[in-house]
Amino acid sequence: MGFDTEAIHGGQIPDPATSAIITPIFQTSTYVQEGLGKHKGYEYARTQNPTRAAAEKNVCILEGGTAAYAFSSGMAAIDTVLKLLKAGDHVICSDNTYGGTFRLFRFVLERFGLQFTFVDTSNLTAVQAAVRETTRMIYVETPTNPVMSLTDLRAAAKTSRRAKATLVVDNTFMSPYFQRPLALGADIVVHSTTKFLNGHSDSVGGMVVLKHAEDAERVKFLQNAVGAILSPFDSWLLLRGTKTLGVRMRQHDFNGRKIAAFLARHPGVKKVYYPGLKTHPQFALAKRQMSGFGSMISFETGSLGRARKVLEGTKLFSLAESLGGVESLISHPATMTHASVPREERLRLGISDGLVRLSVGLENVEDLVEDLKTALGRI
Ligand SMILES: *Cc1c(COP(=O)(O)O)cnc(C)c1O
């Protein structure tokens, strides 16, 4: 069946008790048992919840996985995936991941004996060179935030298999509508559902989708043992979000392409980072492994002063962190999302003081172009 059909019906059955078409919010902490050891598969709400189970099944189908588990945030999901490992294990990680992922790996998990090497995973030779005897996981984000660098997932999967490591892909930026890492050879997909999957800037959550049954068993165990579960209400919001994922992503992509083309032509813009532009160094790879380019765009204005004029000059684009919602957002990576990255490292990654990032929403694109035109006119 097609993506939109699966998004609406995948994992969704009318409520057995009432035939309500929408999965109810099962806001309960426990379930009454008929007798000793006799129950309907639900004992305690950290362990099982029907609303959460419906959301997990839905996203699992969209990503083409074996099982999926929902968490209270993207970070909780990523933390749980890393708990598949043990002290002494080595992880190769993209050097330009989401800032919170870097913080978790470097400043929390290293203290528990996991070892990390951060490399530019768009360079598979560098990944191969970082492999050690103890390498158990390769952790990749593609495209990266905010400079939209891609990692060839098929090639990364080959390297990972050779090293007998697990390939984990953070698919938050593309969503399963535009990129299916499991089909390209990845073993695990993680999401911040806070972004495109929920899509309405009103919930924080995370999801882990597994290809292998052994990993699924262990993540299910960890979800219950550690307990960072997605709440029934957030699960319900997520389900409401994924129903329109296809429609939203098509419009995000349509608007994204128009805005990128507008920025590329504007004399006040020095450089545009968007995988859908022919000038993107990995345009061919983008077309090969993604079925669209999404709506995350960064552009270089030349200096902090010029960036500030743009950032404080838009009306429709709101100055805020986060991304993937219906409303357009504008942000300044150097002082917002990447403020904790040392300046030198930041500049090496291309995150200059003049860089501006957009999450293009679903407003009429002519209005968004007009808004940017006015703001850029202030430079
Ligand atoms: C936001 C984000 C995360 C973290 O998710 P939270 O829901 O904020 O915990 C992880 N990876 C990427 C790519 C993100 O954009």
* CATH topology group of the largest domain: Aspartate Aminotransferase, domain 2
The total strand number stands at 12
Q: How do the strands line up in the largest sheet?
A: 1-7-6-5-4-2-3
Taking the sheet with the most strands, its summary is:
7 strands, mixed
Class of secondary structure makeup: alpha/beta
| Tally of contiguous helical segments | 14
| Helix and strand run | HHEHEHEHEHEHEEHHHEHEHEEHEH
Radius of gyration: 21 Å
Query: How many angstroms does the end-to-end distance come to?
Result: 49 Å
Count of separate structural domains: 2
What is the arithmetic mean of pLDDT? 97
- CATH level-1 class of the largest domain: Alpha Beta
Poorly predicted segments? none
Q: For the record, what is the CATH homologous superfamily label of the largest domain?
A: Type I PLP-dependent aspartate aminotransferase-like (Major domain)
Q: What small molecules accompany the polymer chains? A: pyridoxal-5'-phosphate
Structural key phrases:
single chain; 379 residues; alpha/beta; Aspartate Aminotransferase, domain 2; Aspartate Aminotransferase, domain 1; 2 domains; seven-stranded mixed beta sheet; five-stranded mixed beta sheet; 14 helices; binds pyridoxal-5'-phosphate
